[in-house]
Structures are given as C-alpha cells and as structure tokens.
Amino acid sequence: MAVWETLTESINHYTGLSPTAFFTILALMYVTYKVACGFFVAADDYAAVKKANEFILREPVQLGDVTEEELRAYDGSDPNKPLLMAIKGQIYDVSRSRMFYGPGGPYALFAGRDASRALALMSFDQNDLTGNIEGLSASELEVLQDWEYKFMEKYVKVGQLVTEKTSQSKETGNEVESSKHDGGDISHENGSQVQ
Ligand code: HEM
User: Fold this and answer.
1) pLDDT tens, position by position, 97-152
2) What radius of gyration do the chain's Cα atoms show?
3) Is residue 28 located within the same domain as residue 97?
4) Is residue 93 domain-resident?
5) Do 15 and 98 fall into the same domain?
6) Whose C-alpha lies nearest to ligand 1, atom 33?
7) Which of 85, 87, 88, 100 to mutate to test the pocket of ligand 1 (most atoms within 8 A of CB)?
8) Is the CB of 123 under 6 A from ligand 1?
9) Is the dihedral angle over the CA atoms 64, 65, 68, 70 positive or is it negative?
10) What range does the domain containing 77 cover?
11) I need a surface site. Which of 3, 29, 75, 130 has the fewest CB within 10 A?
C-alpha cells in the first residue's frame, strides 16, 4: 500500500494529474500507438513475415538426377525440403529467395518446376509452365539465356531433370549420362558455386 501511495503522490507531484487521469492518458497513448502501427503493417503481413523468418536456410544438397514428378515435391509446401526450380533442365536451389518462390510469393508458381518457357515468354500462364522451349524465337531464347545466367550466378545448381531414372542414378543419386533432359545448350559447371 505504501508503494501505491508513493506512486500516486509522485504522479501527482510530477504531472499535476490525478492517478486516474494519468493512467487513462497512458492507455489512450498505447491504443493510438497500436492503431498507428496497424496503418503500416497489416496483421496478416506481419504473420507472414514472421513465418518466413522461421525457416532455417540449409546448405544446398546435390540431388543428381531428378524427374519432373520428383521436382514437384520441392515447391515449398514442405518446409523441410529445399525450394527448387529448373531452367533448361538444370535444377537450382532457390531456398534463399523463399520470399519470391515460397508459398504465397509472387513467383511461387515456378517452384518445383522447369519454368523455361514461362521465363522466356515472361508469362505467368499455366500452359507455359514447362521446360519445353520448342518454337521460341531468337529473342525469346535470349531472354531465357539471361535468366539462366542470372540463376547460375545467384543460386547453386543441385541437379538436372531426367525423363526417367536409370538404375545407376537410383542407387547413387548422382549424374549419369543417359536419359538427360534435352533443355540446355551451354555447359553447367557451377555445381559447387556459392553466391
Ligand atoms: C509488372 C511486371 C513485373 C515487375 C514490376 C517485376 C518486379 C520484380 C522485382 C522488383 C523483382 C526483384 C528483383 C531482385 O530483387 O533481384 C523481381 C524478381 C523476379 N521476377 Fe519479376 N517483375 C515483373 C514481371 C515478371 C514476369 C512477367 C516474370 C516471369 C514470368 C518475372 C519473373 C521474376 C523472377 C523469376 C524473379 C526472381 C529472380 C531471382 O530469383 O532473383 N517477373 N521481379
């Protein structure tokens, strides 16, 4: 009780306000602060940012040969799996750009896919979500080439798409010569490259 009395006397002494008025003003200031914050960060955005920050960025793991079907599992829906994306049959670990490719991200549709055609055409059309680059013009192929260079520079290549796995690649998970995806036309020697 003595503490309370000292506190109320101090409030009155320093502010000239009654304790009730003082605490009412304090509460109003808190509410105003919360409302003002709400203008800048929506609650949903805040929750999304917090969730995105919960992911631990793991070192990229080499996967070797991967089929298109297997690649789908790396679309970010499983937080324990890396986020992968392929260009011209070469698979890159894009986990560090979860804000782009993770669920809810602007480019989430590309995750777990070979997005060569969509990137070449700068298209978000579902039908262009394929590694099939047949019939593209020279300038479209150039756009795709620029994307590929960007990815080679920024991300670690962790594997390559194959139409089906050979018994050897099933055993080792490593690259074998047969049944390679036919997308690429330049060498891809950046397997161990770090950003
Ligand atoms: C209004 C049109 C667009 C705007 C304003 C826009 C804007 C941006 C911005 C600001 C970034 C971040 C760049 C960075 O920080 O490195 C980005 C990244 C990206 N954009 Fe777009 N973009 C647009 C259209 C497109 C289209 C049509 C595509 C392909 C279909 C596309 C594919 C991408 C990809 C794949 C990335 C991520 C690259 C990476 O992993 O670093 N964008 N975009």
Assistant:
1) 999 999 999 999 999 999 999 999 999 999 999 999 999 999 999 999 999 999 99
2) 27
3) no
4) yes
5) no
6) 107
7) 100
8) yes
9) negative
10) 58-172
11) 3
